[in-house]
Amino acid sequence: xxxxxxxxxxxxxxxxxxxxxxxxxxxxxxxxxxxxxxxxxxxxxxxxxxxxxxxxxxxxxxxxxxxxxxxxxxxxxxxxxxxxxxxxxxxxxxxxxxxxxxxxxxxxxxxxxxxxxxxxxxxxxxxxxxxxxxxxxxxxxxxxxxxxxxxxxxxxxxxxxxxxxxxxxxxxxxxxxxxxxxxxxxxxxxxxxxxxxxxxxxxxxxxxxxxxxxxxxxxxxxxxxxxxxxxxxxxxxxxxxxxxxxxxxxxxxxxxxxxxxxxxxxxxxxxxxxxxxxxxxxxxxxxxxxxxxxxxxxxxxxxxxxxxxxxxxxxxxxxxxxxxxxxxxxxxxxxxxxxxxxxxxxxxxxxxxxxxxxxxxxxxxxxxxxxxxxxxxxxxxxxxxxxxxxxxxxxxxxxxxxxxxxxxxxxxxxxxxxxxxxxxxxxxxxxxxxxxxxxxxxxxxxxxxxxxx
Length: 453
Description:
Number of domains: 1
Shape: globular
């Protein structure tokens, strides 16, 4: 449930729904070229190197600890930014569900909801892995599976009642227009709703019988994710015209489209908004259970101040508090940046850029380790032997690089800012994000040179 909660959220589906039936194309590409390879690599390498740290261990084993630290930094930092993206959608839907339409664009309200939820999740995560598991289970069942199934039923009921399918739900829309770079970048970037399947590799030592449990959990999470998300995206696309979909709150719009025709269901939007907030809490709890542990492992190796490497039972308190502070500061920036939707998409694009760089390192390391350490005991092996590993890693690496390049192109729907300003914002964001790990790596190297031989 924790792994499913990490990889599955209903919040990131609104942009995909704007493609209508064409969303199936992008979801298929994401599942075959991204979710599948990442799941196979994560299961194989987590059980082969069952040490705490996840990508820090795997990439470090392949290319050295400096590269491992860079990989885990990218995984951790994109997650801190992702909180703002995820909770912005929750805040917008909560406001719309309660009938406060202006709240979806109110920066002060959004910042309060985001910051408050970050600290709530931090407090719950600090109680240990058991608390995180309960958050993941409640978030997955009550915040993801239940509302997702209800929305699917509502769309089917509308279809059975004679509601005509919009143009973007016709079979002619199954293959989207891939000739427009801005349209392509918009669709490709949204595939990272599947990101994070490898994250619980950071907690392998805490899992009973990881050689059997971890691959099984990965497979079940992948199946549940695909089975739920595809029909939910199509339900949103069926109920809301593509031009009217709000990038942060499209799912609630779909519910309201039904309640507008059936006043007896007027209570449903509030219930959905609260359920989606549980969805966000469950997902954030899963991330908080993983990335601080990996960063703390790097901290104990000298890449971070000693306090940030501290480990108490199954939590890393220093990293938990530090990331909550950083996440809060990012969220408060909503007070000075106009337009919640603009910030929502720019942060989403930056998250994609950071995370696909990590995945590029992960797939490269997986292939390198299979080539250089073939005798390592692997309780779970990627099917197909050496050719299978090569194919999986090449497909994952190619799609990661494609997403990275596409991220520099302004999405077609983000008309609020110019292409030049969008590109500069992404470049500045990337520079600011990569400068600290480079500095910390150089600082560690300088300290090692000062040590007596």
